[in-house]
Amino acid sequence: MANRRNDGATTAVDEIEEIDGFDTAGASDAFGDAVPVRKAKAFWPSAKRLVGLLAPEKLGMSIVLLFVGAGVVLAVIAPKILGKAMDVIFSGAIGSQMQPGVPVEKVIEDLRASGRNDTAEMFSRMDLIPGAGIDFELLSRYILIVLAMYFVSSVFMWIQGWLLNRLVMRVIYRLRRDVEDKLNKLPLNYFDTRQRGDLLSRVTNDVDNIQNALQQAISQLLQALLTVVGIVVMMFIVSWQMALIALIALPLSAVAAGVIGSRAQGLFTAQWKNTGALNGQVEESFSGHELMKVFGREEDMLTRFRAKNEELYKASFGAQFLSGTIFPVMNFVSYLAYVGIAVLGGLRVASGAMSLGDATAFIQYSREFTAPLGQMAGMANMLQSGVASAERTFELLDAQEQDEDDVGTSLPACTDGHVEFQDVTFSYSDDKALITDLSFEAHPGHTVAIVGPTGAGKTTLVNLVMRFYELDSGRILLDGVDVTTISRADLRSKVGMVLQDAWLFGGTIAENIRYGRLDATEEDVLDAAKATFVDRFVRALPAGYETVIDEEGTNISAGEKQLVTIARAFIANPSLLILDEATSSVDTRTELLVQQAMAALRSDRTSFVIAHRLSTIRDADTILVMEEGRIVEQGSHEVLLAARGAYYRLYTSQFSGPAEDIDAEPATGGTPTPGQGAGG
């Protein structure tokens, strides 16, 4: 990554916000406040796209659906069989009270003759044997069948859960891979205009939330939906009149879920947006902890944190509260239907319109009918949250990628490092130019120093060489080849870069040095460390080169971190070397040693050196003095001093006090990005 400085009075977010069609979601201004996020996509398109992630798993989903269907069929038929067992018990209890040997028809005729038609009708629907008790053999058979059905159904549900978990993990694996690939394809200005905390939240929290939604919501929704269908079918088989009463609850529940769910969805979107903003605030607080202490800004940061935390609390509470009311509302509606079914079922049994077993089975169906409905309502909470996270992740995946490499030329393994700028024009935004018609030439093996006031475009100049940004017009040639015809990977493999902000990853010192050339041997690492004076302090560490550096590199000093990055560039053996204030973090004595190492590193290769301390670039072959994106002077140290121009004023301001007209020089002429620092 290029240097992370903010060298101008304005930020690129202020400029880029005005560019038509640029997505400023998650961006932050100079004070760390989030730029308003654009309106999220509609729920259903995002939900449809989320389900579309399962398309490569069609076969697996078909098998899951098969097992779920089989399990549900067994589970919904079981109450009907259990109702038959209830009829066996009831018939046996009634039959045991009858006189043995009396025909059932005679009993029914006597009941009708006495005016007890309802009882007669009920007996006519029962399998009565006067004088016989409960048929425990038949009862046992029914009970065993029911237990077997429930057991097999549970096994099928366990299998579908295992299969679904595997295929969802494959989907999330591909999604994480796609997100990582996308991050590597995005242009640098995408990261410049967004909080790192918000990006991390999209890559981690949002993807994890999608995983939870797919794993739990899909499995339970499939099971609940098929269960509802199966139960409705069985209720119509048992009694279509009572089924119609039970189904009255459906439209009422659907209306309640729809009204509440639509309101909750907006709050879930706000919840995850505010989560990203809060993560960005926390990340800034930790990364700038020392600076915050120095300026006594703890209370201000706490105030900002409390404000963002309050916004997250309100959105989260509202989303969870609203979505949580769906189940109680639907449960209340189901209880109303249950009361109606129980009363009507008792009347129909008493009138002989249906058997006690069927009534019992129907009541069980009515209770099981509300359970999956409530389950679907509960899953709406998780599903809405998952879709809100999916929207944010899809926004990242849909972001405009950097232009594809138009590869027409390959550089040789060894290049001379001849760099030429031809009428180069570049700006971060259309309404403010930074570099205009800039031309110069860096000969092979020469050291080119770039100096100038803050915001002049120094760092931008070398970023253009690296193709971190694309030119508006003009050409940059490396050994006579237009860099736009070379792949970025090929171009950057020939360039070594040491930045002002030393970046180290969590790993050993040897691994951090070898990062410059992964196939380097231990001897190569040692040689690079000795040449850049890393060996001097590593020998004093208990674990030597196996000392593990934490992710922030806090267990070694800033100067030692910088030396490691210099060794990393040294071991890469690049044809073109870029040093952006590479010695700014080392002490004066170490700087002299590093300069000697740099002299060896710069030999036989072209070097661009950005420096504010002009004493470090006196021996440069060419010094470019930049102001407002233009080269106003160029030449050697002695020639430029003799000219008594812009370089002379910069030099005397450092070593002889401010020149008389130093304040008349423009302070800035470019528009740096918050992440890159255009002026360097």
UniProtKB/TrEMBL annotation:
InterPro entries the UniProt entry points to = AAA+_ATPase (IPR003593), ABC1_TM_dom (IPR011527), ABC1_TM_sf (IPR036640), ABC_transporter-like_ATP-bd (IPR003439), ABC_transporter-like_CS (IPR017871), P-loop_NTPase (IPR027417), Type_1_exporter (IPR039421)
Q: Which PROSITE patterns match?
A: ABC_TM1F (PS50929), ABC_TRANSPORTER_1 (PS00211), ABC_TRANSPORTER_2 (PS50893)
- Is this entry keyworded Cytoplasm? no
Gene3D superfamilies for this protein:
ABC transporter type 1, transmembrane domain (1.20.1560.10), P-loop containing nucleotide triphosphate hydrolases (3.40.50.300)
PANTHER family per record: ATP-BINDING CASSETTE SUB-FAMILY B MEMBER 10, MITOCHONDRIAL (PTHR43394:SF1), ATP-DEPENDENT PERMEASE MDL1, MITOCHONDRIAL (PTHR43394)
Ranges of compositional bias, category Low complexity: 665-680
Subcellular location(s): the record lists: Cell membrane
Region (Disordered) spans which residues?
A: 659-680
Q: Any keyword ATP-binding? A: yes
Protein name per its UniProtKB record:
ABC transporter ATP-binding protein
ABC transmembrane type-1 domain: from which residue to which, for each copy? 63-385
- Keywords for this protein: ATP-binding, Membrane, Nucleotide-binding, Transmembrane, Transmembrane helix
| Bilayer topology | Multi-pass membrane protein
The membrane-spanning stretches of this chain are: 59-78, 142-164, 221-238, 244-264
Query: Which residues belong to any copy of the ABC transporter domain?
Result: 419-653
Which residue windows are coiled coil? none
Taxon lineage: Bacteria, Bacillati, Actinomycetota, Actinomycetes, Micrococcales
Molecular function, one GO term: ATP binding
Q: Which organism is it from?
A: Paeniglutamicibacter antarcticus
Q: Which SMART domains match?
A: AAA (SM00382)
> Which SUPFAM superfamilies does the annotation name?
ABC transporter transmembrane region, P-loop containing nucleoside triphosphate hydrolases
